[in-house]
Task: structure prediction
Amino acid sequence: MRPARSVDAYIESLPKEAQSRLREMRTTIKEAAPNAVESISYGMPFYSFRGESGIGARLCYFGLLRSGEKIAFYTRPMFLEVHKDEVKPYLTAKSALQFPLDRPIPVQLIKKLVRTGLKRLKAGKDARD
Result:
């Protein structure tokens, strides 16, 4: 299977039962970061700070895990650290959260994480951690 060339194509290529949750994740990120540039990177939806390239401009990624049972949300560890108590139930790696498809996506938490990332990037804080 060829990698998707757009976020719409990415979502449409996945099982129907996951598509509404993926759209919800996309909407949540776009509401929190309306000026972030959306693209595909590493085969999944990616959002960059003001469309800048490079590791320091990475805001977040999301995607359906291969098992098809969870959505993963990836962001910089330093953005997660600010909300460490809130992310603890979802944290599966240094920079990854996972949300089961059969449970609500914590929309407010995702918005907080994205906004935290934006604040740090706007302030010129190094996001390479």
About this structure: The helical segments are 7-12, 16-32, 77-81, 84-87, 107-122. The two ends are 32 Å apart (CA to CA).
